[in-house]
């Protein structure tokens, strides 16, 4: 299966950098003894950010795979199946 195009990869890497900053902020909150409710709220936001990054990656990957398959003159169903397996954690 093909890799992501450079623009898509950059977009996802930028999301992950923001997530990394969020995680560092949460670590700082815990080290400073911030209120647990605030920390949990930030952890929930972090989880949502990771889920959104995952959705974006899967969507970009699927688009990339389907384009590559169609360019080869093939049927995009196999690319979609492989991407769904990736999304669902199947092998």
Sum up the structure in keywords.
elongated, single chain, mainly alpha, 3 helices, 0% strand, 81% helix, 91 residues
List the helices and strands and how they pair.
Layout: H1 6-31, H2 36-71, H3 77-88
Would you kindly provide a brief summary of this structure?
With 91 residues, the protein is mostly helical. Helices cover 81% and strands 0% of the residues. Helix 1 (6-31) runs antiparallel to helix 2 and helix 2 packs antiparallel against helix 3.
The chain-level mean pLDDT equals 87
Count of DSSP E strands? 0
Uncertain spans:
none
Strand pairing plus helix content: what structural class? Answer: mainly alpha
| Relative strand content | under 5%
The CA-CA distance between the termini, in Å, is 14 Å
Q: In which range does the helix fraction lie?
A: over 70%
Q: Strand count, sense and closure of the main sheet?
A: none
Write down the overall geometry: elongated
> With helices defined by DSSP (H or I, 4 residues minimum), what is the helix count?
3
What does this structure look like?
- The protein is an all-alpha fold.
- The protein is 81% helix and 0% strand.
- α1 runs antiparallel to α2 and α2 runs antiparallel to α3.
